[in-house]
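Q: Could you fold this chain for me?
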Amino acid sequence: MSGAVGPGTVGEVMVPFLGGTTAFHAHPYDETSVYPVGERVLVMYFEPPQTVYVEQLPDFLREDG
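A: Sure. Below is the predicted structure, expressed as structure tokens.
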């Protein structure tokens, strides 16, 4: 995550896409959570052209967990 995500804000996440990495505007999927810069998140929904809704990355997808 390259910009903090939280309610009432527009955050930013970098997503591997089409052989590169693309920045997307991000909002919390549940409309209440806050994710700091550097947090790895799971994209739950894509809204064209450049917006995603994210939630906490589940433990089973974490490399350190």
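A (continued): The radius of gyration is 11 Å.
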